């Protein structure tokens, strides 16, 4: 099943191992960035960055160490 950004909270509640949850969340994040192109506006890029930050904060709920690294790498 393909998951979208809207499914982030649902993934957190799944009865999966933490590694599987993080992998699915990072997959969603990569898809968001793949959908950006040369003609993407600054607003579109900013919207993806906000979504990405929310995904990283969700990962932080699963594994604080990994989540902190991802969030700090954005800044």
Structure description:
Helices cover 73% and strands 0% of the residues. The protein has 75 residues and is an all-alpha fold. The chain has a domain at 42-75. Helix 3 (42-62) runs antiparallel to helix 4 (64-74). The longest helix has 21 residues, at 42-62. The protein starts with 7 loop residues before the first helix and ends with a helix.
Element order, helices and strands? Answer: HHHH
Distance between the termini: 32 Å
Q: Unreliable stretches, pLDDT < 50, 5 or more residues?
A: none
Q: Kindly name the structural category.
A: mainly alpha
How many runs of DSSP E, i.e. beta strands?
0
The total count of helices amounts to 4
Backbone CA Rg: 13 Å
The residue fraction in helices comes out at over 70%
Characterize the main sheet.
none
Strand content: under 5%
Sum up the overall morphology in one term. globular
What is the typical, i.e. mean, pLDDT? 96
Gist of the model:
This protein is mainly alpha-helical and 75 residues long. It contains 4 helices and no strands. Helix 3 runs antiparallel to helix 4.
């Amino acid at each position: 099943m393909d998951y979208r950004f809207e499914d982030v909270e649902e993934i957190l509640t799944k009865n999966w191992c933490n590694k599987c949850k993080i992998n699915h969340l990072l997959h969603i994040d990569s898809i968001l960035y793949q959908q950006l192109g040369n003609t993407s506006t600054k607003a579109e890029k900013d919207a993806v960055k906000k979504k990405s930050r929310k995904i990283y904060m969700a990962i932080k709920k699963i594994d604080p160490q990994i989540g902190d690294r991802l969030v700090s790498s954005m800044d």
